Amino acid sequence: MFQGKTVVVTGAASGIGAATAAWLAERGAEVLAVDLKRPGPGAGRFLQADLSDKASIDALVAALPAGVHGLANIAGLPPTRPAADVVAVNLVGLKYLTTRLLPKLADGASIVNLASLAGLGWSQPEAKPAIDASEQLDFAGVDAFCRQYGIEGARSYFFSKEALIVWTLRNRWTWRDRGIRMNAISPGPVDTPILKDFLETLGARAEEDMRTMDRPGRPGDIAPVVAFLLSDEAAWIRGTNLPVDGGMYSNLLCQMHGF
Known about the structure:
Shape: globular
Structural class: alpha/beta
CATH architecture: 3-Layer(aba) Sandwich
Radius of gyration: 17 Å
CATH topology: Rossmann fold
Helix content: 40-55%
CATH class: Alpha Beta
Distance between the termini: 40 Å
Number of domains: 1
Strand order of the largest sheet: 3-2-1-4-5-6-7
CATH superfamily: NAD(P)-binding Rossmann-like Domain
Number of strands: 7
């Protein structure tokens, strides 16, 4: 499926990023594995980068080859980290890497953003002012932005995923003339190294969600879906946010609408 394809995977050292890198490599892709830490064997060629740092992203893009067929934006920080760091990595750095890499993407390339069920609130009216303002947000303005919009604590993670989903939706046709498409995936709770951070941050709410689910997701549940959206078989899917969460999104929708 991926013979002759070059795919950049961020966050490739652990969790969903590691599973995705391995899945793609096993199926013939040349994987360029981006992380702060070196991934394990089988993840592809390691390229170190700090997605909270503009200069580091610029150096990464300069080191990447032309003709990249796919970008899986999986790297992210949990809600236990400082709010400005979460927004910088999960949103600003992700968007900056994507837009800087566009000239090196092959025509027909696919971009997949790892959002989250935590971004479900993107459609609420109260979320719109901050999401709209984030369209012009750069690294230098993250601290002031978080103060202005009251983005602190766990809200930083929720906001970063809300804004990422909207950015994906808004850019459904932006690069259509080159056949470049972008989609998002929203997992529910997944058994990765940062699951503990989520449970600690969300407390009783997380416990209720986990009781509703039969089990948390596994990285191996998410990686094949990322790979599908990166593949040529998904060429007619554009600007979609796809829940991959064991049915949690459907459960929440039914609760919200009284079904």
